[in-house]
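TA notes. Do not distribute before section.
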Amino acid sequence: MLGKPGCHLCDDARAVIERVAADLGVRWEERDVTLSAEEFAEYGDQIPVTFVDGVRHDFWRVDEARLRAAVGKLLR
């Protein structure tokens, strides 16, 4: 997930991602979009941005069922 400090949407997205990752036994990481000029230029107005297996999956809000389905496909 790409997020930034003080972002309430990032807090919401993080909670969903943490829950899905824990339930499915997968790891995840979060990066601060403000630390990379390149990522900030590309994604700064879309945060939080979630990725599944390196591919942009969602932005602004994370749909839990959609995230579970996408991660589940990778685990099969």
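Switch to the second chain here.
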Amino acid sequence: MYRLIAIDIDDTLLTDDGRITDATRAALAEAVKRGVTVTLATGRMFASASRIAEQIGLNVPIITYQGALVKTPFDGNVLYERNVPADAAREILDYCRRNGLHLQLYTEDELYAAEDNDKVREYAERSDVPYRVEPDLDKLIDRPQSKMLIIGDPDELDRIADELRPVYKGRVHITKSKPNYLEFLHPEATKGHALAALARHVGCTMEQTIAVGDSWNDREMIEAAGLGVAMGNAIESLKAIAGFVTKTNNEDGVKHVIDTFILNR
């Protein structure tokens, strides 16, 4: 029997217009009633993800910042936390400055950018979070960084990722949450590591977990879970490694997973 299900938010739990359907809400509630721990696993900030958790009544630790922070919305209890190594954070900042890249910092659950531009405004609007402008990011870089994010052209970010992965192998986890988002995190700040920590907390085995996602930043939890599920709208590389492909986010794909593997409908 599955005892824990971790669900990505964007393009997974939410429809394209940012809603959780009534049918999916009902399925989540029924899973909880059956004794299953339902949680979120997202690249979003805790401040953003906690509002989604509150909408569906979750008072369990949620996985945020790709796995860098696992924290309970209502009481603020931190279960798991991994920040970008300080020396690597400064190197990445210097690299972005030399190459004229738009970099965002996430420290103490606040979003910072060096300038007020379309990139940070669109990101903040999409995630429903405020942001701060600090022209001198050197003032912030020595604080704990949950993650660092470059926003740019997808092909250029692929090139940067290929360039930097060998440089930071074993020191920094580099992933893409969207084609135009390149993220830098602690090597143990993945949704897979966080799911394992949460499974230990709940008291279940990894074989008793389900992970549902749509993008490459979901890979680690898809591979780690007892049942890794890719959405019907997921990237093809994720579908290729998933144990099950469900319907799309606009077709109640999460509900379909719960109906099939938890409620046995």
